[in-house]
Amino acid sequence: MKRITLVVLSYFILLLTACDNNKTKHSNETTKETTAAIDNEEFTGTCTANGKIYTGNVKASTFGLTGQFEVYFQDNKDASELGLIRILFKDEASARAGGNFITAYDQQKNQTDKEVSISFDIKYRTEEDSKGTVTVNKTGGHNELIFDNVTLKTMSKETVVVSGKIPF
Prior knowledge:
By secondary structure, the chain is α+β, with helices and mostly antiparallel strands. Helix content is 15%, strand content 43%. The protein has two helices and twelve strands. Strands 1, 2, 3, 4, 5, 6, 7, 8, 9, 10, 11 and 12 form a twelve-stranded mixed beta sheet that branches. The longest helix has 20 residues, at 2-21. The radius of gyration is 15 Å and the shape is globular. Mean pLDDT is 78; it is low at 1-39.
């Protein structure tokens, strides 16, 4: 059930991104999402949100239309909550280059090389006044995304503070 939910949510987010960025193109143009191979390894990511720990298998994908690169996982323990964390980079090259990133407000547009958008449980996302640190380090043959005390908000200004480590 979680996989179905994750797939449906990924395609929904992809559709929203494609529709917003593709208003002037033909409506019959297809949108592609290609799943990035993560060195044929299964990585496990963890994050905390308001003190609760979430753990899941890490996935990464590139949106064919926009070139944006996302790293995400859904909690594999608690079916009562979505537990989905999603980090969106301008492109895979920016993500893999590593370094420090700032949080970006608009997830629908390509950010600069050093901006990243974060969402949690779909409704919480980075806002203009989001605080916290986001860093990507190269560790061995892969990268590790580390985010610490990042404030995410809903449209009604509810907040959640997330921290975590996600190898990709």
